[in-house]
């Protein structure tokens, strides 16, 4: 069966892995997934990720992060979905938990956090929110 929302699948794998207290989770690889993981790593929500070979296909092993036994990611949600795309200008980017969380945005300059997008004065598709 074809995957209609690869990014939603990635976020669900991370959410489920943290609920199950896993050290790492596997996900099929794509450029978009890797860029989103770059943002999560820069912002300190995951320890890191590496590319692996999974039965002839490339995959990503995501190292999950915990703080005092609690997952670093308390909430992760897809904002722009295949059936309803959500776009925002740089001045209208949503703040998650009054700035405590991040919004992941796909911009012409790449996948950025909301703070980076505001700093570079670019808007784009609001992919997900994390805190």
Give an account of the 3D structure:
The structure is a single chain. With 131 residues, the protein is of the alpha+beta class. The chain has a single domain, classed as Dna Ligase, domain 1 (2-Layer Sandwich), CATH 3.30.1490.10. 25% of the residues lie in helices and 37% in strands. It is built from three helices and ten strands, in the order αβαββββββββαβ. The strands form three sheets. Strands 6, 7, 8, 9 and 10 form a five-stranded antiparallel beta sheet that branches. Strands 1-3-2 form a three-stranded antiparallel beta sheet, with helices on one face. A two-stranded antiparallel sheet has the order 4-5. A hairpin with a 2-residue loop joins strand 4 and strand 5. The longest helix is centred in the N-terminal third of the chain and has 14 residues. It starts with 5 loop residues before the first helix and ends with a strand. 28% of the residues are buried. The model has no long low-confidence stretch (mean pLDDT 95).
Provide a compact summary of the structure.
This protein has 131 residues and is an alpha+beta fold. The chain has helices at 6-19, 31-42, 114-120, and strands spanning 24-28, 46-54, 57-64, 66-67, 70-71, 76-78, 87-88, 102-107, 110-113, 124-130. The longest helix is centred in the N-terminal third of the chain and has 14 residues, at 6-19.
CATH architecture: 2-Layer Sandwich
Largest β sheet strand count, sense and barrel closure:
5 strands, antiparallel
Order of helices and strands: HEHEEEEEEEEHE
Q: Which descriptor suits the 3D outline? A: globular
Average pLDDT taken over every residue:
95
Could you name the CATH topology? Dna Ligase, domain 1
Q: Report helical residue fraction.
A: 25-40%
Whole-number count of domains: 1
* CATH hierarchy, class: Alpha Beta
Structural class: alpha+beta
Unreliable residue stretches: none
With helices defined by DSSP (H or I, 4 residues minimum), what is the helix count? 3
DSSP, total strands: 10
What separation lies between the terminal Cα atoms? Answer: 31 Å
As a whole number of angstroms, the C-alpha radius of gyration is 14 Å
Strand content: 35-45%
GO molecular function, one term: structural constituent of ribosome
Function: One of the primary rRNA binding proteins, it binds directly to 16S rRNA central domain where it helps coordinate assembly of the platform of the 30S subunit.
Keywords: Ribonucleoprotein, Ribosomal protein, RNA-binding, rRNA-binding
Family: Belongs to the universal ribosomal protein uS8 family.
């Amino acid at each position: 069966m074809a995957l209609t929302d690869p990014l939603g699948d990635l976020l669900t794998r991370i959410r489920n892995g943290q609920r199950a207290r896993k050290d790492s989770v596997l996900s099929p690889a794509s450029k978009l997934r890797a860029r989103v993981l770059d943002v999560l790593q820069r912002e300190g929500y995951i320890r890191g990720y590496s590319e692996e070979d999974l039965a002839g296909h490339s995959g990503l092993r995501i190292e999950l992060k915990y703080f005092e036994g609690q997952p670093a990611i308390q909430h992760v949600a897809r904002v722009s979905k295949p059936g309803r795309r959500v776009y925002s200008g740089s001045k209208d980017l949503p703040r998650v938990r009054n700035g405590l969380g991040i919004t992941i945005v796909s911009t012409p300059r790449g996948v950025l956090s909301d703070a980076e997008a505001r700093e570079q004065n670019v808007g784009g598709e609001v992919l997900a929110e994390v805190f």
